[in-house]
Amino acid sequence: LWQNGEQYHYDAGEDPPLCWAPGPAVEEGEAPSEGEFPEGEGESAEGEGELPVEGEGPTETILLPGDVPLELVRIPAGSFQMGSPETERSRDSAEGPVHTVTINYDFYLGKYEVTQEQWLAVMGVWPGTAPSSADGIGDIYPAYNISWNDAQAFIAALNTHIMTTGQGPATVRLPSEAEWEYACRAGTQTRFYFGDSLSVDDACSDDGVRSQYMWYCGNNSPYESKPVGGKLPNAFGLHDMSGNLWEWCEDDWHYGYTGAPSNGSAWIDAPRGSYRVFRGGGWYDEAWNCRSAVRRYDLPSFPYSYGIGFRLAR
Protein backbone atom coordinates (compact mmCIF):
# COMPACT_ATOMS: atom_id res chain seq x y z
CA LEU A 1 0.00 0.00 0.00
CA TRP A 2 1.03 3.60 -0.48
CA GLN A 3 0.51 6.72 1.57
CA ASN A 4 1.87 10.17 0.79
CA GLY A 5 4.09 8.66 -1.88
CA GLU A 6 5.71 6.15 0.48
CA GLN A 7 5.14 2.42 0.62
CA TYR A 8 4.15 0.71 3.85
CA HIS A 9 3.19 -2.81 4.86
CA TYR A 10 -0.45 -3.42 5.73
CA ASP A 11 -1.35 -6.19 8.18
CA ALA A 12 -5.14 -6.66 8.45
CA GLY A 13 -4.65 -7.67 12.08
CA GLU A 14 -3.09 -4.33 12.98
CA ASP A 15 -4.21 -0.73 12.77
CA PRO A 16 -2.77 0.70 9.52
CA PRO A 17 -1.17 4.14 9.34
CA LEU A 18 -3.77 6.76 8.63
CA CYS A 19 -3.80 10.26 7.29
CA TRP A 20 -6.63 12.72 6.93
CA ALA A 21 -7.34 16.18 5.73
CA PRO A 22 -10.70 17.92 5.95
CA GLY A 23 -11.92 19.56 2.78
CA PRO A 24 -14.57 22.11 1.93
CA ALA A 25 -18.10 20.81 1.60
CA VAL A 26 -19.12 19.77 -1.89
CA GLU A 27 -22.68 20.22 -3.03
CA GLU A 28 -24.44 17.10 -4.35
CA GLY A 29 -23.96 16.92 -8.10
CA GLU A 30 -20.96 19.29 -8.02
CA ALA A 31 -17.52 17.96 -8.89
CA PRO A 32 -14.83 18.55 -6.23
CA SER A 33 -12.16 21.01 -7.27
CA GLU A 34 -8.50 20.12 -7.20
CA GLY A 35 -7.27 19.51 -3.67
CA GLU A 36 -10.76 19.06 -2.25
CA PHE A 37 -12.34 15.90 -0.97
CA PRO A 38 -15.84 14.87 -2.01
CA GLU A 39 -18.30 14.74 0.85
CA GLY A 40 -17.27 12.00 3.25
CA GLU A 41 -13.55 11.80 2.46
CA GLY A 42 -12.36 14.40 4.92
CA GLU A 43 -15.31 14.36 7.27
CA SER A 44 -18.40 12.35 8.02
CA ALA A 45 -21.15 12.70 5.44
CA GLU A 46 -23.60 12.81 8.30
CA GLY A 47 -21.64 15.48 10.21
CA GLU A 48 -20.79 13.11 13.05
CA GLY A 49 -17.20 14.29 13.41
CA GLU A 50 -14.02 14.15 11.41
CA LEU A 51 -12.65 10.74 10.49
CA PRO A 52 -9.24 9.66 9.23
CA VAL A 53 -8.84 8.82 5.57
CA GLU A 54 -6.47 6.03 4.62
CA GLY A 55 -3.93 6.60 1.88
CA GLU A 56 -4.49 5.25 -1.61
CA GLY A 57 -2.08 3.66 -4.03
CA PRO A 58 -0.48 5.38 -7.01
CA THR A 59 -3.01 6.50 -9.60
CA GLU A 60 -3.19 6.61 -13.37
CA THR A 61 -5.41 9.00 -15.30
CA ILE A 62 -6.83 8.32 -18.75
CA LEU A 63 -8.04 11.36 -20.67
CA LEU A 64 -11.31 10.64 -22.45
CA PRO A 65 -12.56 12.67 -25.42
CA GLY A 66 -12.97 16.29 -24.40
CA ASP A 67 -10.16 15.80 -21.83
CA VAL A 68 -12.58 14.24 -19.34
CA PRO A 69 -10.39 12.42 -16.78
CA LEU A 70 -10.90 8.83 -15.65
CA GLU A 71 -8.78 7.92 -12.62
CA LEU A 72 -7.53 4.42 -11.81
CA VAL A 73 -5.83 3.29 -8.59
CA ARG A 74 -3.05 0.73 -8.51
CA ILE A 75 -4.01 -2.43 -6.61
CA PRO A 76 -0.98 -4.37 -5.31
CA ALA A 77 -0.46 -8.09 -5.84
CA GLY A 78 -1.48 -10.39 -3.01
CA SER A 79 -3.54 -13.32 -1.74
CA PHE A 80 -6.92 -13.42 -0.02
CA GLN A 81 -9.73 -15.73 1.01
CA MET A 82 -12.50 -15.31 -1.57
CA GLY A 83 -16.12 -15.88 -0.57
CA SER A 84 -17.83 -16.04 2.79
CA PRO A 85 -17.65 -18.73 5.50
CA GLU A 86 -20.78 -20.64 6.43
CA THR A 87 -20.80 -18.79 9.76
CA GLU A 88 -21.11 -15.33 8.15
CA ARG A 89 -24.41 -13.65 8.95
CA SER A 90 -26.72 -13.14 5.94
CA ARG A 91 -24.54 -15.38 3.79
CA ASP A 92 -25.82 -16.96 0.58
CA SER A 93 -24.62 -20.42 -0.42
CA ALA A 94 -23.41 -19.09 -3.80
CA GLU A 95 -20.67 -17.28 -1.87
CA GLY A 96 -18.77 -20.48 -1.10
CA PRO A 97 -16.75 -22.48 -0.65
CA VAL A 98 -14.16 -20.05 0.67
CA HIS A 99 -10.95 -20.53 -1.30
CA THR A 100 -7.52 -18.93 -1.57
CA VAL A 101 -6.91 -16.69 -4.57
CA THR A 102 -3.41 -15.42 -5.33
CA ILE A 103 -3.16 -12.43 -7.65
CA ASN A 104 0.56 -12.27 -8.45
CA TYR A 105 0.37 -9.05 -10.44
CA ASP A 106 -0.46 -5.44 -9.77
CA PHE A 107 -3.43 -4.04 -11.64
CA TYR A 108 -5.37 -0.80 -11.80
CA LEU A 109 -9.04 -0.33 -10.94
CA GLY A 110 -11.32 2.68 -11.27
CA LYS A 111 -11.27 4.89 -8.21
CA TYR A 112 -14.97 5.49 -8.89
CA GLU A 113 -17.70 3.87 -10.91
CA VAL A 114 -17.83 5.13 -14.50
CA THR A 115 -19.80 8.36 -14.40
CA GLN A 116 -22.47 9.75 -16.68
CA GLU A 117 -20.06 12.40 -17.95
CA GLN A 118 -17.47 9.74 -18.78
CA TRP A 119 -20.03 7.56 -20.56
CA LEU A 120 -21.20 10.43 -22.77
CA ALA A 121 -17.62 11.56 -23.46
CA VAL A 122 -16.85 8.16 -24.99
CA MET A 123 -20.20 7.03 -26.42
CA GLY A 124 -22.13 10.26 -27.03
CA VAL A 125 -25.56 8.72 -26.41
CA TRP A 126 -27.24 6.37 -23.96
CA PRO A 127 -27.73 2.76 -25.07
CA GLY A 128 -31.26 2.34 -23.71
CA THR A 129 -32.98 3.94 -20.75
CA ALA A 130 -31.18 7.22 -20.06
CA PRO A 131 -30.53 8.37 -16.48
CA SER A 132 -33.39 10.31 -14.94
CA SER A 133 -33.86 12.84 -12.16
CA ALA A 134 -35.80 10.18 -10.28
CA ASP A 135 -32.72 7.93 -10.07
CA GLY A 136 -30.00 10.57 -10.10
CA ILE A 137 -28.68 12.61 -13.00
CA GLY A 138 -25.53 14.70 -13.41
CA ASP A 139 -21.92 14.58 -14.56
CA ILE A 140 -20.50 12.90 -11.46
CA TYR A 141 -23.42 10.54 -10.89
CA PRO A 142 -22.65 6.95 -11.92
CA ALA A 143 -23.79 5.63 -15.28
CA TYR A 144 -26.54 3.10 -14.56
CA ASN A 145 -29.04 1.02 -16.56
CA ILE A 146 -25.98 -0.34 -18.38
CA SER A 147 -26.02 -3.92 -19.67
CA TRP A 148 -22.87 -6.06 -19.72
CA ASN A 149 -22.86 -5.77 -23.52
CA ASP A 150 -23.15 -1.98 -23.20
CA ALA A 151 -20.12 -1.95 -20.90
CA GLN A 152 -18.15 -3.98 -23.43
CA ALA A 153 -19.07 -1.52 -26.19
CA PHE A 154 -17.79 1.34 -23.99
CA ILE A 155 -14.55 -0.56 -23.36
CA ALA A 156 -13.99 -1.21 -27.07
CA ALA A 157 -14.56 2.47 -27.90
CA LEU A 158 -12.31 3.64 -25.07
CA ASN A 159 -9.50 1.27 -26.04
CA THR A 160 -9.62 2.66 -29.58
CA HIS A 161 -9.39 6.17 -28.16
CA ILE A 162 -6.47 5.20 -25.88
CA MET A 163 -4.56 3.70 -28.81
CA THR A 164 -5.18 6.58 -31.24
CA THR A 165 -4.20 9.20 -28.64
CA GLY A 166 -1.01 7.43 -27.55
CA GLN A 167 -2.08 6.86 -23.94
CA GLY A 168 -0.38 3.51 -23.54
CA PRO A 169 -1.58 -0.01 -24.31
CA ALA A 170 -5.27 -0.44 -25.08
CA THR A 171 -5.95 -2.78 -22.18
CA VAL A 172 -8.96 -1.31 -20.37
CA ARG A 173 -11.42 -4.07 -19.40
CA LEU A 174 -13.90 -5.22 -16.81
CA PRO A 175 -12.32 -6.68 -13.66
CA SER A 176 -12.56 -10.36 -12.98
CA GLU A 177 -14.82 -11.31 -10.09
CA ALA A 178 -11.77 -12.29 -8.04
CA GLU A 179 -10.01 -8.98 -8.77
CA TRP A 180 -13.18 -7.12 -7.82
CA GLU A 181 -13.55 -8.85 -4.45
CA TYR A 182 -9.83 -8.58 -3.67
CA ALA A 183 -9.93 -4.85 -4.39
CA CYS A 184 -13.16 -4.44 -2.42
CA ARG A 185 -11.82 -6.21 0.67
CA ALA A 186 -8.53 -4.26 0.58
CA GLY A 187 -6.81 -6.53 3.06
CA THR A 188 -9.88 -7.32 5.20
CA GLN A 189 -11.83 -10.54 5.71
CA THR A 190 -14.77 -8.96 7.55
CA ARG A 191 -18.30 -8.85 6.12
CA PHE A 192 -17.76 -5.30 4.86
CA TYR A 193 -14.43 -3.61 4.21
CA PHE A 194 -15.23 -1.33 7.17
CA GLY A 195 -15.99 -4.16 9.63
CA ASP A 196 -18.52 -6.86 10.46
CA SER A 197 -21.30 -4.42 11.47
CA LEU A 198 -23.19 -6.89 13.65
CA SER A 199 -24.73 -4.57 16.25
CA VAL A 200 -27.84 -3.88 14.13
CA ASP A 201 -29.90 -5.90 11.67
CA ASP A 202 -28.93 -6.35 8.03
CA ALA A 203 -31.91 -4.53 6.52
CA CYS A 204 -31.99 -0.71 6.57
CA SER A 205 -30.63 -0.13 10.06
CA ASP A 206 -27.56 2.06 10.57
CA ASP A 207 -24.93 1.54 13.25
CA GLY A 208 -23.31 4.92 12.60
CA VAL A 209 -20.55 3.34 10.53
CA ARG A 210 -22.41 1.88 7.55
CA SER A 211 -23.69 5.26 6.42
CA GLN A 212 -20.17 6.66 6.35
CA TYR A 213 -19.00 4.13 3.77
CA MET A 214 -21.97 3.25 1.56
CA TRP A 215 -25.26 4.40 0.08
CA TYR A 216 -28.00 1.86 0.83
CA CYS A 217 -31.62 1.83 1.96
CA GLY A 218 -30.61 2.88 5.48
CA ASN A 219 -29.37 6.36 4.53
CA ASN A 220 -30.78 7.04 1.08
CA SER A 221 -34.18 8.69 0.92
CA PRO A 222 -35.55 9.26 -1.61
CA TYR A 223 -34.00 6.19 -3.21
CA GLU A 224 -31.65 7.36 -5.96
CA SER A 225 -28.04 7.00 -7.00
CA LYS A 226 -25.59 9.48 -5.51
CA PRO A 227 -22.52 11.26 -6.93
CA VAL A 228 -19.47 9.01 -6.88
CA GLY A 229 -16.96 9.49 -4.08
CA GLY A 230 -19.48 10.76 -1.54
CA LYS A 231 -18.49 8.21 1.10
CA LEU A 232 -15.23 7.16 2.73
CA PRO A 233 -12.98 4.91 0.62
CA ASN A 234 -11.59 1.51 1.53
CA ALA A 235 -7.91 1.00 2.36
CA PHE A 236 -6.96 0.90 -1.34
CA GLY A 237 -8.59 4.29 -1.93
CA LEU A 238 -11.60 2.94 -3.85
CA HIS A 239 -15.01 4.52 -3.35
CA ASP A 240 -18.50 2.99 -3.48
CA MET A 241 -17.37 -0.64 -3.60
CA SER A 242 -20.30 -1.24 -1.25
CA GLY A 243 -23.64 0.30 -2.22
CA ASN A 244 -24.59 3.08 -4.65
CA LEU A 245 -24.39 0.86 -7.75
CA TRP A 246 -24.04 -2.81 -8.69
CA GLU A 247 -20.99 -3.34 -10.92
CA TRP A 248 -20.42 -5.79 -13.78
CA CYS A 249 -17.51 -8.21 -13.78
CA GLU A 250 -16.09 -10.10 -16.75
CA ASP A 251 -17.03 -13.57 -15.48
CA ASP A 252 -19.75 -15.96 -16.49
CA TRP A 253 -22.08 -16.83 -13.61
CA HIS A 254 -21.41 -20.03 -11.66
CA TYR A 255 -23.44 -20.98 -8.61
CA GLY A 256 -20.61 -21.30 -6.10
CA TYR A 257 -16.84 -21.48 -6.43
CA THR A 258 -16.19 -25.19 -6.92
CA GLY A 259 -13.73 -25.30 -9.80
CA ALA A 260 -13.10 -21.54 -9.81
CA PRO A 261 -9.68 -20.19 -10.90
CA SER A 262 -7.28 -19.47 -8.05
CA ASN A 263 -5.06 -16.96 -9.90
CA GLY A 264 -7.40 -13.96 -10.17
CA SER A 265 -8.43 -14.61 -13.76
CA ALA A 266 -12.02 -14.35 -14.95
CA TRP A 267 -14.00 -17.61 -14.91
CA ILE A 268 -15.18 -17.89 -18.50
CA ASP A 269 -16.88 -20.91 -20.04
CA ALA A 270 -16.37 -22.15 -23.61
CA PRO A 271 -18.79 -21.43 -25.12
CA ARG A 272 -19.69 -18.55 -22.84
CA GLY A 273 -22.43 -19.05 -20.28
CA SER A 274 -25.85 -17.45 -20.38
CA TYR A 275 -25.32 -14.99 -17.51
CA ARG A 276 -22.70 -12.54 -16.22
CA VAL A 277 -21.73 -11.59 -12.68
CA PHE A 278 -22.25 -8.24 -10.96
CA ARG A 279 -21.15 -7.21 -7.47
CA GLY A 280 -21.38 -4.58 -4.75
CA GLY A 281 -25.00 -3.71 -3.93
CA GLY A 282 -27.12 -0.76 -5.01
CA TRP A 283 -28.52 2.48 -3.60
CA TYR A 284 -31.88 0.81 -2.91
CA ASP A 285 -30.54 -2.40 -1.33
CA GLU A 286 -30.57 -3.65 2.23
CA ALA A 287 -27.22 -3.75 4.00
CA TRP A 288 -26.67 -7.49 3.60
CA ASN A 289 -26.64 -7.06 -0.18
CA CYS A 290 -23.67 -4.73 0.13
CA ARG A 291 -21.34 -7.21 1.85
CA SER A 292 -17.97 -7.85 0.20
CA ALA A 293 -18.84 -11.45 -0.74
CA VAL A 294 -22.29 -10.87 -2.28
CA ARG A 295 -22.65 -11.86 -5.94
CA ARG A 296 -25.54 -11.67 -8.40
CA TYR A 297 -26.11 -12.33 -12.11
CA ASP A 298 -28.12 -11.25 -15.13
CA LEU A 299 -28.24 -11.66 -18.89
CA PRO A 300 -25.42 -9.78 -20.67
CA SER A 301 -27.94 -8.28 -23.08
CA PHE A 302 -30.54 -7.32 -20.47
CA PRO A 303 -31.63 -3.91 -21.79
CA TYR A 304 -32.93 -2.40 -18.56
CA SER A 305 -30.18 -3.30 -16.10
CA TYR A 306 -31.65 -1.15 -13.35
CA GLY A 307 -29.06 0.08 -10.90
CA ILE A 308 -26.15 -1.70 -12.62
CA GLY A 309 -23.04 0.05 -13.91
CA PHE A 310 -19.34 -0.75 -13.89
CA ARG A 311 -15.82 0.40 -13.12
CA LEU A 312 -12.79 -0.25 -15.29
CA ALA A 313 -9.69 -2.35 -14.74
CA ARG A 314 -6.35 -2.15 -16.52
Layout of strands and helices, then pairs:
Layout: E1 2-3, E2 6-7, E3 59-64, E4 68-75, E5 78-82, E6 99-103, E7 107-110, H1 116-123, H2 148-164, H3 177-185, H4 210-213, E8 246-252, E9 276-279, E10 295-298, E11 308-309
Parallel strand pairs: 8-11
Antiparallel strand pairs: 1-2, 3-4, 4-7, 5-6, 8-9, 9-10
Descriptive overview:
By secondary structure, this protein is α+β, with helices and mostly antiparallel strands. It is 12% helix and 16% strand. It is built from four helices and eleven strands. A hairpin with a 3-residue loop joins strand 3 (59-64) and strand 4 (68-75).
Number of helices: 4
**Uncertain segments of ≥5 residues (pLDDT<50)?**
1-54
Q: Order the strands across the largest sheet as they lie in space.
A: 10-9-8-11
Identify the overall geometry: globular
Q: Which percent range describes the beta-strand content?
A: 15-25%
Summarize the structure.
The protein is of the alpha+beta class.
Features:
314 residues
